[in-house]
Amino acid sequence: MSDIDLCRFIYILIKTMENNKAVRNFAILAHIDHGKSTLADRMLEVTQTVDKRKMKDQILDGMDIERERGITIKLQPVTMDYKGYQLNLIDTPGHVDFSYEVSRSLAAVETAVLLVDCTQGIQAQTLANLYLALEQDLTIIPVVNKIDLPAANVPKTKNEIIKLLGCSEDEIICASGKTGAGVEEVLDAVIKYGHAPKGNEMAKQPRALIFDSKYDEYKGVVAYVRIFDGVIKKKDKIRLIATAAESEVLDIGIFRPDYFPTGQLESGSIGYIVTGFKTVGECRVGDTITFPYEAGDKPEPLPGYKEVKPMVFAGIFPSEGDNLQDLREAMEKLKLNDSALAYEPEHSEALGFGFRCGFLGLLHLEIFQERLRREYNLDIIVTIPSVAYKVLKKGGEEEIIRTPQKLSDPSELLSIEEPWVSLDIITPKEYMGNIIKLAQEKRGVYKNTEYISVETDQPRVLLHYEIPMAAILTDFYDKIKSVSAGYASINYDYLDYRPADVVKLDILVAEDIVESLATIVYRDDAFRQGKDIVNILKDTLPRQMFVIKIQAAIGGKIIAAERLSAMRKDVTAKLYGGDVSRKRKLLEKQKKGKKKMMAAGKGSVEIPPDTFVKILKR
Question: Does residue 571 sit in the same domain as residue 435?
Fold first, then answer.
């Protein structure tokens, strides 16, 4: 052992003796709006992690958009001291579109608090998140939340949890994130039942998993890490195994919940490392941080994450062409802490240069669009979202089509396949008929039904379906809530590709094809879709000085059409008395002028950006 290694060993030993606190790492899992962030607020109060003067609702939700919508979008770690233990909590999102944030969080912890709202019971995302935790072999601590509400049904919720987990009633903790009841019991259970993190503190080559990262204007790339082996200190030289990028630790510490420098992180800790990297591609989520090494001494990388496959694709274009570089830089920075975002350059004759972006769902797209506007002050145009289709050509060539414009002529194609998902719907039994009818209308294939609670006055069922991704893309969630009076919840996971009878629907405005409005639709539903889009355009397009033809077409065949009448200037306003032929002459002259305007190419029509949103939400 060299003198340097010996000094390092002694330093680590001394620090370990100084810091004899035991560690517990845990995450809170729940369906959307079941009270995760509120419970986390009470935990911060109980552990006195945040000063009462600085305390506010949803303190771990750092973005304004999270507070306004009342949802968690980004995972957020925080370190708390409680009864001699260091508790590292990761607050996670609940919406299905952000489930990748949950899976990344679970790889960094050993324990999961499963939170269930006792006014709603177990919901679709409760099950989905539980299965993710079980796959990671985490300790599950069941908690019934919101016991202070008048509509709380604790016995029913406990029965559902017992049936789901096979636990005893004594193991279920009753709590209220609002009043703080039961919060200390939850923390005590994490300490008592949660496993201590495993790792080799004395490892010569440390290993840290990057489970999230963020671009800071002043600090550069900040990596959120879980240390599995060894110790990493400020000013240490580091190397990322996957990208082979090397740098120096500029700062290191824990979350309180803001950055709190500690000078080092030991095995089992969760914290941040200011990496010194300036480009986002060098510091990828799922990579392993270690020390620089020789070719033959490469440490074993930690298991990373499965690459997320975006399912929804839309074109993103700057409203002003000279903002393309700003848009590119903003998307690179958002990509750093949004691993589910995928994008590639795209060109449209109508909208110019932009990007074809992939998302996990419409909420993901909506949040991305809003973050570009708020955080980077960018106005963008978003084309109609579509799924990715698998196309087999007659020459045997297979390709993935993410935009309707790239769909080849039907005469060149052998087959088109679309993505299908497994869909779980949890609903009170009384709305079961409405939901089955809706699922059939959306081409869903029924698999089976499970009963979650039968003994109560309001039995609930879990319906399993297989359904095309395109069918649930736009309005399915809203319709599910509508037909179930808001009680139903859904979760879906990608299955496979299956044959689809679809065609490209073109939209023509003033006899010009509008590329950004093209979409791929089912052949037997093309007329209805075309008619809907044409009617929306008629109601939303601004009137011009000439008549505008609005048409929907498949190939060269027009299947739906409307006309937007022209604005007419009153050219006879100054006439009074005299021969009627003078009036006719002026009107005829106006008519010829409008024809000339169209013939000279001045009849082009600009589509307002909000029109795309109205068509999307039709």
Answer: no
Q: Based on the domain organization, do 463 and 543 belong to the same domain?
A: no
Residue entry with tokens 């709190």: 260
Domain assignment of residue 44, yes or no: yes
Separation CA 377–CA 355 (nearest Å): 18
- Does residue 495 sit within a domain? yes
Query: In 202-346, where does DSSP find H-type helix?
Result: 324-336
Range of the domain at 216: 207-297
Q: What's 277's domain CATH number? A: 2.40.30.10
Q: CB-based contacts of 603: which residues, under 8 Å, 6+ apart?
A: 510, 544, 546, 548, 597
The torsion angle over the Cα atoms of residues 453, 458, 463 and 468, rounded to 10 degrees, is -140
- The pLDDT tens digits for 130-171 are 888 888 889 999 999 999 988 888 998 999 899 888 888 889
DSSP codes joined into one string, 390-423: EEEETTS-EEEE-SGGGPPPGGGEEEEEEEEEEE
DSSP 556: T
- Of 484, 499, 514, the residue that ends a domain is 499
Please name which of 499, 492, 494 lies closest in space to residue 476, comparing C-alpha atoms: 492
Is residue 10's pLDDT more than 60? no
**Are 449 and 465 part of one and the same domain?**
yes
- The pLDDT of residue 413: 81
Mean pLDDT within 187-215: 87
The span from the CA of 151 to the CA of 569, in Å, is 62
State the DSSP H helix or E strand holding residue 613, giving kind and residue range, or none if neither.
helix 609-616
Q: State the distance between the two ends of the chain, measured CA to CA, in whole angstroms.
A: 70
Whole-model pTM: value is: 0.74
Where are the extended beta strands (E) located within 175-318? 207-216, 220-229, 232-233, 237-240, 246-248, 251-255, 259-261, 264-265, 270-274, 288-290, 312-318
DSSP designation for 369: H
Taking residue 180's Cβ as centre, other Cβ atoms within 10 Å add up to 17
Q: Quickly count: other Cβ atoms within 10 Å of residue 128's Cβ.
A: 20
Measured CA to CA, the distance from residue 86 to residue 25 in angstroms comes to: 8
Of 239, 271, 297, which one is at a domain's C-terminal end? 297
- Contact predicate 578/556, CB 8 Å: no
Cβ atoms within 10 Å of 201's Cβ, excluding its own: 16
Pair (18, 110) in one structural domain:
yes
C-alpha to C-alpha distance for 36 and 30, rounded to whole angstroms: 7
Total number of domains constituting the chain: 5
512 shares a domain with 445? no
pLDDT digits (tens, 9 = 90+) for 398-415: 888 887 877 877 777 888
Q: What CA–CA distance (Å, rounded) separates 389 from 404?
A: 9
